[in-house]
C-alpha cells in the first residue's frame, strides 16, 4: 500500500523527468486475463510455428529478399506486387481506427508485440522470483548468492528466449531449415548474425527492462488515441458515482450508513496494472486497455458481496446516465471502408494473374530503317513467371497498322518463380503508319494454360512524314 502511494505521489509531483520506479504487476485471474493469455498463446504459437510449415515444396511464409520472391502459402509475390503491401498497411491503419473508436485500445491490451512478449517475460519472472511481494522483497534485499542465482537464471532464460525470437525472425527471410543447419555449423552469414542479435537484444530490452516505458514514452499511439475516442467509445472506467467516497471496511459493515461507496480502497487495481496507474483517477494515456483492473476488481466485489462492474468496460455516456450509441456514423464509415478495401484486396489476390510482362523499348535509337525500306523498332520483353510451375509462352501483337513481329524463338520457357527475357523486333511499312507514334499491344500467352495470359502496351515510333 505504501509503495502504491509513493508511485502515485511521484507521478503527481514529477515534472518532465521523473525517476523511473519499477512496476511489479500482481498476477490476476479472470475473463480478460484468460483472453489475454489465449491471445499470447495463439500469436506466439503462430510466430514460432509458421516458419517451419511447408507448402507445395517450399517454406510456407518466406520473404526471399536475395531472389526478390515472397512466399505466402500458395501465393508467390514479387516486387511488382508491392501494391498489395501498401493496401495491407492501409487496412491495418483502418482496423486500428475502427477498433479504437469502437472499444478503445484493444490492440494494445491483447495483440501488440510489446504486450505479448512482456506477458511471457513476466510469467518467467514470476516462476523464478515468485509473486509480486516476493519480487519486491528480493529486489530490496542485499546481494547474496541466492539472489544472484535467481536473478542470473531469470536473465539467462530471458536472453535465450530473446535470441530464439531473433532467430525465428531471421527464419522468415532465410529458409529456416538452412538456418538451423548453418547455426549448428556456426556458419551463419554476418547479416544473419546481426539480425538475430539485434532483434533478440530489442526483445530482451523492451520486454525485460523497459516494459511500460515503451508504451508510455516511445509508442506514438498512446499520444493520439484520444483523438479517436468519443463519449460512446467503450473504455475501461471506474464508476466514481458508485465507488466514491472510498474507504476500507469490514465485509459485513453497513458502509452505506457511513457514507461510503463500493470502493474499499484496496488498491488492487493499481497493483495489477502493468503501467502502474490508478484507473480511479480517470482515463489516462498510460492505460493500455488490458482490463486486468476489471478482473481483479470483480474478484474483490465478489468477496465483499457487492455487484460486479465497479471497474468495467463502459462509455462515458453510460456512466453519466446517457444512452450509448455504439453504431454511430464514425464506426459505420470505418467498417464500410474497411470491408470494401479488404474485400477488393482478397478478390484481386484470388483473381491475380501470376504472370508479368514488361515491354522495354530500345532507347538508343528512335527507330531503324532496314535495307528493304521498312521501319523497325527494337524491344526487350521481360517475362516474370510468378506461378509455382514452369510455363512455356508465346507472344503476339496487335496494332492499328500492318506489322510483323520478329523474334529469335517463337516460344520461351520460364521456370517457376523465375524471370526471363527475349529480344524482339517489330517491322512495318512507313506508308502504313498514320502518325509518328503508334500503340502496339503485346499479348503473352501460356501455351499449356489457356487462362494464363497478360497484355501490355508498347510504343512504335516511325519517321516524320512530309
SSE arrangement:
Layout: H1 2-13, H2 31-49, E1 54-55, E2 58-59, E3 61-64, E4 69-72, E5 75-77, H3 82-103, H4 106-110, H5 113-129, H6 132-140, H7 145-170, H8 176-184, H9 190-210, H10 212-218, H11 221-224, E6 235-238, H12 240-243, H13 268-271, H14 292-304, E7 311-314, H15 316-319, H16 329-350, E8 355-361, E9 368-369, E10 375-385, E11 391-398, E12 403-407, E13 411-414, E14 419-428, E15 437-446, E16 453-461
Shape: elongated
Query: How would a textbook summarize the main sheet?
Result: 5 strands, antiparallel
Work out the number of β strands: 16
Tally the helices. Answer: 16
What is the averaged pLDDT score? 90
As a percent range, the share of helical residues equals: 40-55%
**What is the gyration radius calculated from CA atoms?**
32 Å
| Percentage of residues in strands | 15-25%
Structural class: alpha+beta
N/C terminus separation = 96 Å
- Describe the oligomeric state of these chains in a short phrase: single chain
Poorly predicted runs: 10-15
Amino acid at each position: 500500500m505504501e509503495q502504491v502511494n509513493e508511485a502515485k505521489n511521484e507521478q503527481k509531483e514529477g515534472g518532465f523527468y521523473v525517476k523511473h520506479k519499477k512496476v511489479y504487476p500482481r498476477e490476476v485471474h479472470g475473463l480478460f486475463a484468460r483472453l489475454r493469455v489465449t491471445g499470447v498463446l495463439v500469436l506466439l504459437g503462430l510466430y514460432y510455428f509458421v516458419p517451419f510449415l511447408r507448402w507445395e515444396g517450399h517454406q510456407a511464409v518466406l520473404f526471399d529478399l536475395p531472389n526478390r520472391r515472397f512466399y505466402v502459402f500458395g501465393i508467390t509475390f514479387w516486387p511488382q506486387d508491392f501494391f498489395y503491401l501498401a493496401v495491407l498497411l492501409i487496412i491495418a491503419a483502418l482496423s486500428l481506427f475502427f477498433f479504437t473508436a469502437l472499444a478503445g485500445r484493444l490492440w494494445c491490451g491483447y495483440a501488440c508485440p510489446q504486450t505479448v512478449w512482456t506477458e511471457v517475460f513476466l510469467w518467467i519472472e514470476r516462476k523464478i522470483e515468485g509473486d509480486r511481494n516476493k519480487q519486491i522483497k528480493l529486489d530490496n534485499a542485499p546481494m547474496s548468492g541466492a539472489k544472484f542465482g535467481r536473478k542470473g537464471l531469470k536473465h539467462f532464460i530471458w536472453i535465450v528466449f530473446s535470441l530464439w525470437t531473433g532467430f525465428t525472425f531471421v527464419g522468415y527471410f532465410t529458409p529456416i531449415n538452412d538456418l538451423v543447419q548453418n547455426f549448428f555449423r556456426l556458419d551463419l552469414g554476418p547479416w544473419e548474425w546481426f539480425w538475430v542479435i539485434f532483434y533478440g537484444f530489442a526483445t530482451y530490452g523492451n520486454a525485460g527492462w523497459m516494459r511500460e516505458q515503451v508504451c508510455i514514452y516511445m509508442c506514438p499511439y498512446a499520444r493520439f488515441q484520444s483523438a479517436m475516442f468519443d463519449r460512446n467509445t467503450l473504455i475501461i472506467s471506474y464508476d466514481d458515482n458508485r465507488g466514491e467516497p472510498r474507504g476500507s471496511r469490514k465485509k459485513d459493515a453497513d458502509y452505506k450508513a457511513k457514507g461510503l461507496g463500493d470502493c474499499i480502497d484496496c488498491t488492487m487495481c493499481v497493483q495489477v496494472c502493468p503501467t502502474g496507474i490508478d484507473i480511479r483517477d480517470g482515463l489516462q494515456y498510460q492505460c493500455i486497455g488490458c482490463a486486468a483492473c476489471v478482473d481483479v476488481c470483480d474478484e474483490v466485489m465478489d468477496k465483499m458481496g457487492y455487484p460486479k462492474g465497479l471497474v468495467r468496460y463502459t462509455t462515458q455516456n453510460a456512466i453519466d446516465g446517457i444512452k450509448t450509441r455504439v453504431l454511430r456514423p464514425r464506426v459505420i464509415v470505418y467498417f464500410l471502408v474497411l470491408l470494401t478495401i479488404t474485400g477488393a484486396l482478397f478478390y484481386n489476390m484470388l483473381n491475380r494473374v501470376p504472370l508479368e510482362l514488361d515491354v522495354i523499348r530500345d532507347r538508343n535509337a528512335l527507330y531503324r530503317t532496314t535495307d528493304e525500306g521498312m521501319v523497325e523498332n527494337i524491344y526487350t520483353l521481360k517475362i516474370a513467371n510468378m506461378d509455382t510451375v514452369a510455363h512455356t509462352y508465346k507472344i503476339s501483337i496487335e496494332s492499328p497498322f500492318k506489322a510483323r513481329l520478329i523474334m529469335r524463338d517463337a516460344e520461351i520457357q520460364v521456370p517457376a518463380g523465375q524471370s526471363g527475357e527475349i529480344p524482339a523486333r517489330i517491322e512495318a511499312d512507313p506508308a502504313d503508319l498514320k502518325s509518328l507514334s503508334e500503340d502496339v499491344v503485346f499479348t503473352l500467352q501460356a501455351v499449356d494454360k489457356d487462362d494464363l495470359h497478360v497484355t501490355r502496351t508498347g510504343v512504335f515510333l516511325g519517321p516524320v512524314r512530309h
